[in-house]
Amino acid sequence: MSKEQTPRQLPAPCIIDSGTIVSKDDMKRLLNDLCHVHYLHTIDEELNSEGKGWILEVFSHPYQSTLIANGNLYINIQSFDYIQLSQSPEGGNYFDLIQDNRRLRLIPIVNSKPEPASVKNIDAATIEAMVTEVLSARWDVQLDDDDF
Prior knowledge:
single chain; eight-stranded mixed β-sheet; 36% strand; extended
């Protein structure tokens, strides 16, 4: 290859509803949105344990463990080689975290009841409007106090 020719850079992967994720950053990003899951832990394709739980933390650390206990999941993406993203016949996604002969399947539990509004569900424009309203009310109070 001559100096004038530069290697053509390949586009970043695009994975939609199914595929294999090997990038640790992509793995973490994908799992961060999960909350309540049904999990199946298999070794050599034999069911070792299963249950339901809440994903409390997704992190990346070379020496800390992935922990599942008391209905809580703390997932270290360094514990797994890759994630296989698949779609169930019903149309929902599930996530197989793979490391050698170990598989941790996470199936999101979709709550049929609407969740109460939380700060996480409020968009930036709404937050900005609320802050503006609070500051405006404070300035009005300060101006009223200055008149006396």
